[in-house]
Design brief:
With 157 residues, the chain is of the alpha+beta class. It folds into 2 domains: 49 residues; 101 residues, Sandwich (Immunoglobulin-like), CATH 2.60.40. Helix content is 28%, strand content 29%. The strands form 3 sheets. The protein has a 4-stranded mixed beta sheet with strand order 1-2-8-6, with no helix packed on it. A hairpin with a 2-residue loop joins strand 4 and strand 5. The chain is rod-shaped and about 110 Å long.
Length: 157
């Protein structure tokens, strides 16, 4: 009977083994890179979720009509990342509102400042259609999920 010679059989087995090892190596490497990318993304998201903001002040700026509310938003000093202000949502009594220029010297405007470094603040103005009332609240929510609420002071009863 004729068959494959032992030399050719050995060469074929070595080639098959090398091919399987190369395939396994590339498969495991791509799986490791994918896991590393996903882990990096999740760590980045987790770090972003740890960042915080607070409202330093929120007050009626034009008594007795009190149709303008000035607020100060501050990035917490313990933050490790700059907070983006683009995409930040502002709410007045749970209704989405837009902000305008506050016009306060020494305070950058929230709608023109692209981000807040840790400990940095910005100011904004909310113009109301009627006078603010005691118990009114302002809520600010950044794109990364952190949010803060404060009562508006100086409103007439």
């Amino acid at each position: 009977m004729k068959g494959v010679s032992p030399v050719i059989a050995t060469i074929l087995m070595v080639m098959i083994t090398v091919g399987l090892v190369a395939f396994s190596y590339s498969w495991f490497m791509s799986m490791g890179q994918s896991a590393q990318t996903q882990t990096g993304t999740q760590l980045s998201q987790m770090e972003k979720s740890q960042q915080g903001i607070k409202i330093g002040t929120a007050y009626c700026s034009n008594p007795p009509t009190c149709t303008d509310v000035i607020f100060e938003m501050r990035a917490l000093s313990m933050n490790t990342l700059n907070i983006p202000t683009n995409g930040t949502s502002y709410y007045y009594n749970d209704a989405v509102t837009s902000i305008g220029v506050a016009g306060i010297s020494g305070c950058t405007e929230c709608n023109t400042n692209p981000e807040l470094a840790p400990g940095q603040k910005c100011c904004g103005r909310i113009t109301l259609t009627s006078s603010c009332k005691i118990g009114d609240k302002i809520r600010i929510s950044i794109p990364w999920g952190a949010e803060t609420i404060a009562s508006v002071t100086g409103c007439p009863s």
